[in-house]
């Protein structure tokens, strides 16, 4: 581990914002981390990515990044940041209007807080691999495959993990024959959930009760991603398990189990329920389930983490049906990470508070080399 010559602390670049529809959620996550990160151990370099893709040096201030009903945070500014893609030149450069470039020095670890495409999907991870910069979270392949809900299910099914029925509609299939694609969905029964294949935070997700609503729901999902997945509704409790990579050769660790209950105002756990109308959602941890069920969820969550090739962290989401069957919904390789999000909450119940969790993730990233591993 290297340290900043000025402070003697490990230097962590917190990268947030991004080009996806989850830009605001990423800013809110950064606000939480900036408030909680251990300043005695880490020197923080906040880097925001604007919606148009510009990398900008941001103020070390969480308040403008908080997401509320009255504030929608946005990355903007005119102080550009250049992250090197050359392992031989590790210094981050700052470009200010009318000024010569200046060096900010090297970064020890990047903590990506980006959600969705162009951040959570292996693209940022590939850039950091080229630059030989260590980073928190999964590598290129696991990030890319787990971002795609279709490919994710293929991996899980191959590993013998339980997944629900679904239909995939690619951009070419939709443009070539809409009627055929709509007929394929009808075989799933009703209701169904229409989702962009490569988006998160429930952006573009719609619950569809009958065939007449289906085409408009697919078109709405296509605004986020031309590839759409339609899933048969699974009746069951929504439970979640956090997983952290083990140190050295140790196996990954599973957290206590959390449960999400929508108690009013929303048909399901959509974007507004997650981040705006939080009073209509109850997050419970530990979930009120039998010990043997909790043990099974933990075991299967670690199995899913390893089957996907995840590193660092992941949140594994399950449906627990009334008959006792578990159905794997998805893995999030960069899960919601505000203090109110489920991932920090389940780890707090497991003995790792928010600040300690951030430290643990940075330590795991520091231990893990870049490149093939």
From TrEMBL:
<dbReference type="InterPro" id="IPR005905">
    <property type="entry name" value="D_ala_D_ala"/>
</dbReference>
<dbReference type="Pfam" id="PF07478">
    <property type="entry name" value="Dala_Dala_lig_C"/>
</dbReference>
<keyword id="KW-0133">Cell shape</keyword>
<dbReference type="GO" id="GO:0016874">
    <property type="term" value="F:ligase activity"/>
</dbReference>
<keyword id="KW-0547">Nucleotide-binding</keyword>
<comment type="similarity">
    <text>Belongs to the D-alanine--D-alanine ligase family.</text>
</comment>
<feature type="domain" description="ATP-grasp">
    <location>
        <begin position="153"/>
        <end position="363"/>
    </location>
</feature>
<keyword id="KW-0464">Manganese</keyword>
<keyword id="KW-0460">Magnesium</keyword>
<dbReference type="InterPro" id="IPR011127">
    <property type="entry name" value="Dala_Dala_lig_N"/>
</dbReference>
<protein>
    <recommendedName>
        <fullName>D-alanine--D-alanine ligase</fullName>
        <ecNumber>6.3.2.4</ecNumber>
    </recommendedName>
</protein>
<comment type="function">
    <text>Cell wall formation.</text>
</comment>
<dbReference type="InterPro" id="IPR013815">
    <property type="entry name" value="ATP_grasp_subdomain_1"/>
</dbReference>
<keyword id="KW-0479">Metal-binding</keyword>
<comment type="pathway">
    <text>Cell wall biogenesis; peptidoglycan biosynthesis.</text>
</comment>
<dbReference type="Pfam" id="PF01820">
    <property type="entry name" value="Dala_Dala_lig_N"/>
</dbReference>
<dbReference type="InterPro" id="IPR011095">
    <property type="entry name" value="Dala_Dala_lig_C"/>
</dbReference>
<keyword id="KW-0961">Cell wall biogenesis/degradation</keyword>
<dbReference type="InterPro" id="IPR000291">
    <property type="entry name" value="D-Ala_lig_Van_CS"/>
</dbReference>
<keyword id="KW-0436">Ligase</keyword>
<dbReference type="InterPro" id="IPR011761">
    <property type="entry name" value="ATP-grasp"/>
</dbReference>
<dbReference type="InterPro" id="IPR016185">
    <property type="entry name" value="PreATP-grasp_dom_sf"/>
</dbReference>
<keyword id="KW-0067">ATP-binding</keyword>
<keyword id="KW-0963">Cytoplasm</keyword>
<keyword id="KW-0573">Peptidoglycan synthesis</keyword>
């Amino acid at each position: 581990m290297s340290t900043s010559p000025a402070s003697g602390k490990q230097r962590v670049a917190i990268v947030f914002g991004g080009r996806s529809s989850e830009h605001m959620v990423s800013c809110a996550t950064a606000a939480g981390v900036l408030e909680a990160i251990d300043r005695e151990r880490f020197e923080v370099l906040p880097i925001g990515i604007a919606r148009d893709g510009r990398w900008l040096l941001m103020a070390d201030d969480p308040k403008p990044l908080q997401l509320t009903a009255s504030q929608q945070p946005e990355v903007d500014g005119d102080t550009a940041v250049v992250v090197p893609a050359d392992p031989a030149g590790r210094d981050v450069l700052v470009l200010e209007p009318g000024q010569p470039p200046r060096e900010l020095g090297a970064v020890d670890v990047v903590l990506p807080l980006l959600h969705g495409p162009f951040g959570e999907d292996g693209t940022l991870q590939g850039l950091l691999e080229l630059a030989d910069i260590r980073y928190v979270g999964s590598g290129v392949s696991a990030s890319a495959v787990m971002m795609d809900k279709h490919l994710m299910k293929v991996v899980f099914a191959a590993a013998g993990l339980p997944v629900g029925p679904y239909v995939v509609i690619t951009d070419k299939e939709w443009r070539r024959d809409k009627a055929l694609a709509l007929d394929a969905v009808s075989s799933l029964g009703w209701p169904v959930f229409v989702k962009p294949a490569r988006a998160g935070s429930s952006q573009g997700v719609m619950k569809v009760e009958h065939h007449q609503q289906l085409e408009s729901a697919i078109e709405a999902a296509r605004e986020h991603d031309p590839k759409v997945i339609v899933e048969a509704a699974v009746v069951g409790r929504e439970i979640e398990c956090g997983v952290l990579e083990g140190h050295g050769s140790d196996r990954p660790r599973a957290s206590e189990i959390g449960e999400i209950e929508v108690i009013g105002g929303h048909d399901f756990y959509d974007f507004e329920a997650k981040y705006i109308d939080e009073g209509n959602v109850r997050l419970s941890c530990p979930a009120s389930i039998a010990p043997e069920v909790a043990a099974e969820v933990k075991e299967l969550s670690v199995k899913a983490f390893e089957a996907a090739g995840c590193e660092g962290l992941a949140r594994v989401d399950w449906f627990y049906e009334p008959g006792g069957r578990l159905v794997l919904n998805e893995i999030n390789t960069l899960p919601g990470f505000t203090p109110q999000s489920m991932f920090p909450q389940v780890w707090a119940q497991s003995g790792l508070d928010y600040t300690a969790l951030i430290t643990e993730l940075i330590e795991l990233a520091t231990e893990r080399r870049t490149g093939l591993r």
